Amino acid sequence: MKLMHSSTSPYVRKVEVLLRESGLIDQVPFVPGSGTPLAPNDETIHVNPLGKVPALLRDDGPAIYDSRVICRYLDDISGGHFYPKTRLYEVLTLEALGEGIIDAALLMAYEWRLRPEEKRFDEWVEGQWSKIARALDVLDDRWMSHLQGNVTMGQISVACSLGYLDLRNADRNWRDGHTSLATWYETFAKRDSMLATVPA
Length: 200
Known about the structure:
Layout: E1 2-5, H1 10-22, E2 30-32, H2 42-47, E3 55-57, H3 67-78, H4 88-114, H5 122-142, H6 153-168, H7 179-188, H8 192-195
Parallel strand pairs: 1-2
Antiparallel strand pairs: 1-3
Helix pairs in contact: 1-3, 1-6, 4-5, 4-6
């Protein structure tokens, strides 16, 4: 197997954290695959027509994508610990919530990184942040008990999304008003798998 990756992608980070937590990291070499919607990577497009990373190249079948599909696949081959059946739908919902935060933050980043200044749409940016703010509120208010205990993909996804907010939206100070979530993240971010994958 090989993983098409980008060093700053939070979607890739989710997969890498899982690889480290599951002990598979030495079995999956990384291959550069970063690009943007305006300048996609040709090699990534060859294996994923959407041009997005991560994409997992397998020896016994076609490449698979996106991060949620890859994480389920890797969990299956590593023994199935990160999507526990007793809490499966809660874990999947947390994973989707983390992914949604990443989606909105990435759209914000694309607006200021790729769009010419005179065409930037401030209301669009704030609309994306409002999604993130609502998700943070719900995590802090309703989901803290599900962020405890053995590591799941829900926890990994949320942690990677918060790390991405630190990278791209530090000025927004997501911790303000989310004390429980911030405290949880401070501890989770010290895991070896998280420390080893901090975006450069």
